[in-house]
Amino acid sequence: MPANHSFTRPDGKTAPAYYVEPEAGGNAPGVVVIQEWWGINDQIERVANRLAEAGYRALVPDLYRGARALDAAEAEHKMTGLDFGDAAHQDVRGAIQHLKQSSAKVATMGFCMGGVLSILGAIHAPELDAAVAWYGIPPDEAGDPATIRIPLLAHFGNQDQMFPPEAVDALEAKMQAGGVDYTFYRYDAPHAFGNEDWDYYDAEAAKQAWDRSLDFLAKHLSG
Questions:
Q1: How far apart are CA 128 and CA 105, in angstroms?
Q2: Dihedral sign of CA atoms 83, 85, 90, 91 in order
Q3: Strands across the sheet with 5-8, in order?
Q4: CA pair distance 95, 61, nearest whole angstrom
Q5: What is the per-residue pLDDT for 59?
Q6: What DSSP string runs through 1-29?
Q7: How far, rounded to the nearest angstrom, does the alpha carbon of residue 10 sit from its chain's CA centroid?
Q8: For residue range 83-128, what is the model confidence (pLDDT) as tens digits?
Q9: Bridge-partner residues for 20, per DSSP?
Q10: Distances from the Cα of 59 to the Cαs of 7, 37, 110, 128, in angstroms?
């Protein structure tokens, strides 16, 4: 399904998105879902739909503006070509602000490239109430994770070669030094273990991470 919605970025530009509402309607808590390097495909739309079934408004900003990667090489090329600063400060923050217009509380949930952007949202978007990151670590120059002042949940795979355990350790040390309210879970699984359409899907780890994510959202977005 193509993007079916749009929102206004802080710079005034309009950005496309995939959007779905829960039965509770347009005032329910919101989650900005941030894509993997594939773009907005069927899998990331299913994530948004599952969040709507769980009671959340889900908005997926289309960072690739309608494009989708069909193989890993193309996906890597598109991710490498993405302006992460623009994506974090304009697309992701704009999506947060859009949901905040009628949702009292809003979180981000991102995967891989989106996990990076979810943490960057936690660093740079003051409107955000909570953040969930699946296997993504931002580069040092993108922002200081020690400055995060909202609850953050992150899932990592101990077999992840893109974001290896030592990189997770370094991120955790920064958050500890900053007194961040964070929870890290580590799974005996590879990168992208939560993507049911990808080669490295781990059903057990994915279910555990998803359940933990829903518990986290319920705790921090309710009330």
A1: 8
A2: positive
A3: 5-8, 14-20, 57-61, 30-34, 106-111, 130-134, 152-157, 182-187
A4: 7
A5: 97
A6: ----EEEE-TTS-EEEEEEE--TT-TTS-
A7: 19
A8: 888 998 999 999 999 999 999 999 999 999 999 999 999 999 999 9
A9: 58
A10: 10, 17, 12, 14
Q: How far is CA 181 from the centre of its chain?
A: 17
Residue 94: what are its φ and ψ, rounded to 5°?
-60, -40
- Measured at the CA of 134, the angle between CA 130 and CA 139, to 5 degrees, comes to 90
pLDDT at 2: 40
Residue 1's pLDDT is what?
Answer: 36
| Residue segments in the chain with a per-residue pLDDT below the cut of 50 | 1-2
Tokens of 135: 């296997």
Q: Which residue has the tokens 């304009």?
A: 90
Question: 69 Cβ partners below 8 Å, 6+ apart?
Answer: 37, 38, 39, 75, 77, 78
| Token duo for residue 63 | 């960072």
Cα distance between residue 217 and residue 192, in whole Å: 21
DSSP state of 140: G
Q: What is the pLDDT of residue 3?
A: 52
